[in-house]
Design a protein that fits this description.
By secondary structure, this protein is mainly alpha-helical. The chain is 74% helix and 0% strand. Keywords: Membrane, Transmembrane, Transmembrane helix, Transport.
């Protein structure tokens, strides 16, 4: 039962990260626009590029799954997501923000379908429950990121870039937990597919 709960927690942690780097931007867009002297169009790209990437790069899921496997791909992309998000704290450059928005959108575009496929493959009898956990965690992550963005910017004395960056630490923590708790890519390596997951 404890093991099953750990898997649910891992799926929650990974899913929680999938909207942090996107939703944290919108509440700060006015501050960023003023600080960097951006036009409305330039500012809008900071939130629209990740969404566009999620559509464009969905086809890369097959490549990553065949090249690295679902589990290893999720780990690697979580690392990239965390590093790119954290690096926002080092720069206040518009084009670097665009670059990280692109990377974040790319990572999310692939992690989401991989995680969904991982759930359905490893836990077919409980996929509905875990897809619900996946969706709930994404929604909560989005809410937390948008809700705390301005507070964190004030906490860092107007450092909106640090407010954007801090969410990357959660991605790196999740990547470490995922790597330590999820075994390598082997068929049904986590548990027998006929074993049900039950909430504690």
């Amino acid at each position: 039962m404890k093991k099953n709960f750990n898997y649910i927690l891992l799926i929650f942690m990974v899913s929680f990260n999938l909207r942090l780097g996107i939703s944290s931007v919108s509440p700060l867009i006015t501050v960023i626009k003023k600080d960097l002297a951006l036009t409305n169009f330039q500012a809008s790209l900071l939130t629209s590029i990740p969404v566009i990437c999620m559509g464009i790069f969905a086809f890369c899921v097959i490549f990553f799954e065949q090249k690295f496997g679902k589990k290893s791909s999720i780990f690697l992309l979580l690392l990239l997501l965390g590093i790119s998000t954290l690096s926002r704290g080092l720069f206040t450059n518009y084009f670097y923000l665009l670059f990280t928005a692109f990377i974040i959108g790319f990572c999310v575009a692939i992690i989401g379908p991989l995680l969904s496929g991982f759930i359905k493959q490893e836990f077919p009898e409980n996929s509905g429950l875990l897809i619900g956990v996946y969706s709930l965690a994404m929604g909560l992550g989005s809410t937390f990121a948008s809700g705390f963005a301005l507070f964190l910017a004030d906490y860092f004395d107007g450092g909106w870039n640090k407010s954007l960056a801090i969410w990357g630490s959660l991605s790196l923590i999740s990547a470490i937990f995922w790597k330590n708790k999820i075994s390598d890519d082997t068929p049904s390596s986590i548990m027998p597919v006929n074993q049900k997951i039950r909430l504690p």
